[in-house]
Specification:
binds S-adenosylmethionine; Rossmann fold; globular; 8 helices
Length: 209
């Protein structure tokens, strides 16, 4: 019997409880996949998240990297919410209705989990942030605007920084039409830029060739 597997079950449950109070659009299983990639994923370079919202996925990523004493997480978001989070829209966000931004709630959440020292918030659009970016990336998590055009733009802006063998994760594959269509095109394309490693919940995971 491999006792490490039993330890993983206990670790998953401990983290699930730790992050339960942080609001967000991520299941605990998806969070644990990000945690493991941040902890033991391949490559050398930064971890970049496009779309942090209230910090749920950021907390999982930062905790994984912190556990292995690896890189901090760059959390890129303009913190104004996606179209569906705006007042009166399908996934209206209370912080946006109240304050017009998710930034203060994001900071409260990462502090409540104790990972604020492992996160560099970048309060900017994906496009602005990519314009000033210079570092290699070993793990890129794309969870910003879910339209086809925005997902394609996020990938094209940030993929050049991903190291060979680095990992790119896309959230809400199968759940949102635009990002799903882009993801399917990417993994089926003959360009050979990436190969698909698999899916955990709605996270599609590819590796740079
Ligand atoms: C689906 S939410 C992210 C959910 C988050 N990853 C979680 O675990 O709960 C999408 C986020 O992307 C951000 N966003 C949308 N378009 C963006 C853009 N062009 N640049 C930066 N952030 C963007 C929104 O402000 C929103 O916070």
């Amino acid at each position: 019997m491999n006792f490490n597997e039993i330890n993983s079950v206990a670790e998953y449950e401990r983290l699930r409880q730790q992050f339960a109070s942080v609001e967000g659009w991520l299941t605990a299983l998806e969070g644990y996949a990000l945690f493991k990639l941040a902890e033991i994923g391949p490559g050398v370079g930064r971890i970049v998240e496009i779309g942090s919202f209230l910090g749920k996925s950021t907390c999982w990523l930062a905790t994984g990297s912190q556990q292995a004493s690896r890189e901090k997480v760059a959390a890129v978001d303009h913190f104004s919410g996606s179209p569906e989070h705006q007042p009166g829209q399908g996934f209206e966000c209370e912080a946006i209705v109240r304050e017009g931004t998710t930034y203060n709630r994001f900071l409260d959440n990462i502090r409540s989990v104790g990972v604020e020292g492992y996160i560099d918030p970048i309060k900017a659009s994906s496009e602005e942030a990519a314009g000033g970016w210079r570092d290699p990336i070993r793990l890129l998590f794309i969870d910003g605007d879910h339209s086809y055009e925005a997902t394609r733009l996020d990938f094209s802006l940030w993929f050049p920084f991903v190291c060979s063998g680095g990992i790119v994760c896309f959230h809400d594959i199968g759940a949102w039409e635009g990002c799903t269509r882009y993801y399917n095109e990417l993994v089926q394309s003959a360009s050979g830029e990436v190969h698909q490693l698999g899916r955990v919940g709605s996270i599609g995971i590819v590796q740079k060739v």
